[in-house]
């Protein structure tokens, strides 16, 4: 016998009273204790010795894990992994510098300083931070927009000729890249200090994967000039990718010799370029000078900050989103925790300090991270060792790679983008699992390709949030029925054996109730219950007016007959205020057409008809368990539903609304007539209560006094 069959055969029985929300509060002794905002703030800023030590150690995680570093178990693996990743940093750093539109050597700087900072402040043991294709493309869009080639054209020797000032252009672009990197680091640092790590939740997995795929397309197009030796016209802004692609199609593709060595290793390509003097003989672009040593820090260009705020924030969000997503994957696999807020601080410091040393924005690389894990890396020490490898290259052997063709770096980029291009397969899998996510993927792809990475990210996030709003506006509305012999309720249209409770309608929406879908909630309620309260109340008013006219006519007739007999008039047409008589409880609940009047000399008795209106449910239960918040419009909607159906003679109960009771209290939902007695914790409690309440019979006696308006209501 399997576990599932065993569970099916275990019966249980619970006996308790039907409890409304008031009863639950009394039985459970609900606490009214609340911590004031002032006390919360005071506790947050209170500084004690243990708290200061804990905050300091969490801010500098190195001081926590390094003293307990298991040297014997991890040292060899971290050493081999660090050397392997460091070797990968060399070609990737120089290649991604081309994407950022800066000289290749600055990619090596970006593979050194930020890694050391992350080693001290980071919490992920397995990700390899450093240069990343998507971040480099975003940096390149900023540098080429603010420092286009056209701004650095100088007159040539001939009258109509101009020459590009490459040295001046590259210097300006390095300054722009470092400044936007510094600003993005400040954004990340501030977001981390205010505990804003949850901002990454707005970057869903389909959005991130589609965004990186679209960015890969930007990368491929940007590297065509290095791969095929062409010089297409540069464009910036929306649709620039389309313009560049169209312009590229008009060029021929020379340098056939170079294409035969694109897939060779770096060393071979460098030797071939050096021996055959490809730069001079064939005009092949090479890496160029790689100065030995490290550069001194330089202050960012403050004058440029205003023109790159949006770009810097986009870099901050995307870089953090990619790093934390990959970090959580490894943390889940190897059973440790990654602090999302501390990761923001670590990346922020890496970029801010790196910007001072002319680095461009960094994140983590999937390919390097996989190599780091597969070669035995078990801690941040592997990252520090990879930084040492880059330091050795910068100090001693960097000049050996000066003759490396840029086309080889472009080929390296293509290889690294191979995994990203495979993400097009997400479309088929998302079509089978979640079509809304598939739409988000496709739209993110299109928007990023057309609008460039910076504007594309903002538009993609906006579209993703809109899909959430649309889903709350188009929820599934259901009438629930009871699973026979249980206290379980399910949509009647989804199950064959689920039956509705006679006289009771149980209504549920799959989304929360707020201003954007409140009107649709009411329309769906009318449609599902088959009761249009507006039409019903209009019909009731007509019947009421007709009844009053008949009563007035009968009163006049009775007074005339009394006068003929010489008696005092027995009925008054209106009361002292000139208003019509008040309605009885039965009349106020829509049972006017069921009242029968028995006249006697002194008393007229009004009795409720034995058969209620069969077209109306006796009670409506609103299952609010999917509702996780209520705004003022939602509270007002529930209040109007209760009032309107009540006037139509239908009692309304609410269940599963424990999470929104406070909102209902603040929204003045309750008053002297409407209390928590109509709230229930479960649908079954509300059903039992409504069944018991509907057995009550009302006897209404209408007494003839001086005014035709006094009633005695007896309830049994």
TrEMBL record:
Stretches with biased composition (Basic residues): 548-557
Topology versus the membrane: Multi-pass membrane protein
UniProt xrefs under CDD domains: STAS_SulP_like_sulfate_transporter
Region Disordered, residue ranges: 548-591
Main location: membrane
Entry keyword Protease: no
Protein localization: Membrane
Protein name: Solute carrier family 26 member 6
């Amino acid at each position: 016998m399997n576990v599932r069959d065993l569970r099916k055969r275990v019966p249980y029985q619970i006996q308790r009273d039907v409890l409304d929300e008031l009863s639950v509060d009394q039985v459970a002794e609900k606490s009214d204790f609340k911590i004031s905002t002032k006390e919360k703030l005071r506790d947050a800023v209170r500084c004690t010795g243990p708290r200061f030590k804990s905050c300091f150690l969490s801010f500098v995680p190195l001081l926590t894990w390094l003293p307990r570093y298991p040297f014997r178990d991890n040292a060899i693996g971290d050493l081999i992994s660090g050397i392997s990743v460091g070797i990968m940093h060399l070609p990737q750093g120089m290649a991604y510098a081309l994407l950022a539109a800066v000289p290749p050597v600055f990619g090596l700087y970006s593979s050194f300083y930020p890694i050391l900072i992350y080693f001290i402040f980071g919490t992920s043991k397995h990700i390899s931070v450093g240069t990343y294709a998507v971040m480099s493309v975003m940096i390149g869009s900023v540098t080429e927009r603010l420092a286009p080639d056209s701004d650095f054209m100088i007159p040539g020797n001939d009258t109509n000729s101009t020459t590009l000032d490459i040295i001046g252009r590259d210097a300006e672009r390095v300054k722009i890249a470092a400044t936007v990197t510094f600003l993005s680091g400040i954004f990340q640092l501030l977001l981390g200090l205010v505990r804003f790590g949850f901002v990454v939740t707005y970057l869903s997995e389909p959005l991130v994967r589609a965004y990186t795929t679209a960015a890969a397309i930007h990368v491929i197009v940007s590297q065509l000039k290095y791969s095929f030796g062409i010089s297409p016209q540069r464009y910036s802004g929306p649709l620039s990718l389309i313009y560049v692609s169209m312009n590229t199609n008009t060029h021929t593709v020379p340098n056939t010799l170079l294409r035969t060595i694109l897939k060779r290793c770096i060393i071979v390509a460098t030797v071939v370029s050096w021996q055959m003097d490809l730069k001079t003989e064939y005009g092949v672009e090479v890496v160029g000078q790689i100065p030995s040593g490290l550069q001194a820090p330089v202050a960012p260009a403050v004058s440029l900050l205003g023109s790159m705020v949006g770009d810097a924030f986009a870099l901050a969000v995307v870089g953090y989103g990619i790093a934390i997503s990959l970090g959580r994957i490894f943390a889940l696999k190897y059973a440790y925790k990654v602090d999302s807020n501390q990761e923001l601080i670590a990346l922020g410091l890496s970029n801010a300090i790196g910007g001072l040393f002319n680095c461009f924005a960094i994140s983590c690389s999937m390919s390097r991270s996989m190599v780091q894990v597969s070669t035995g890396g078990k801690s941040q020490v592997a990252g520090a060792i990879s930084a040492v490898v880059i330091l050795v290259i910068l100090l001693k052997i960097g000049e050996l790679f000066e003759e490396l063709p840029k086309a080889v770096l472009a080929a390296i980029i293509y290889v690294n983008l191979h995994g990203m291009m495979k993400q097009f397969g997400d479309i088929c899998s998302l079509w089978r699992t979640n079509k809304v996510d598939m739409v988000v993927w496709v739209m993110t792809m299109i928007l990023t390709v057309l609008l460039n990475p910076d504007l594309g990210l903002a538009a993609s996030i906006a579209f993703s949030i809109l899909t959430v709003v649309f889903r709350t506006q188009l929820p599934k509305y259901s009438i629930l029925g009871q699973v026979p012999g249980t206290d379980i309720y399910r949509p009647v249209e989804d199950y064959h054996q689920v039956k509705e409770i006679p006289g009771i309608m149980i209504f549920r929406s799959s989304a929360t109730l707020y201003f954007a879908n409140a009107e649709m909630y009411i329309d769906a309620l009318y449609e599902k219950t088959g009761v249009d309260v507006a039409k019903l109340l209009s019909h009731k008013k007509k019947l009421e007016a007709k009844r009053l006219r008949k009563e007035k006519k009968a009163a006049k007739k009775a007074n005339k007959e009394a006068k003929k007999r010489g008696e005092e008039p027995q009925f008054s047409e209106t009361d002292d205020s000139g208003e019509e008589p008040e309605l009885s409880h039965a009349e106020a609940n829509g049972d006017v057409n069921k009242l029968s009047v028995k006249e006697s000399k002194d008393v007229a008795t009004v009795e409720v008809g034995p058969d209620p209106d069969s077209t109306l449910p006796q009670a409506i239960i609103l299952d609010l368990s999917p509702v996780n918040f209520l705004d003022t419009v939602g509270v007002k909607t529930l209040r109007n539903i209760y009032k309107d159906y009540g006037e139509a003679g239908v009692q309304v109960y609410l269940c599963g609304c424990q999470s929104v009771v406070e909102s209902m209290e603040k929204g003045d939902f309750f008053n002297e007539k409407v209390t928590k007695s109509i709230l229930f914790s479960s649908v079954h409690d509300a059903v039992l209560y409504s069944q018991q309440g509907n057995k009550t019979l009302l006897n209404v006696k209408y007494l003839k006094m001086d005014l035709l308006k006094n009633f005695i209501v007896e309830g049994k």
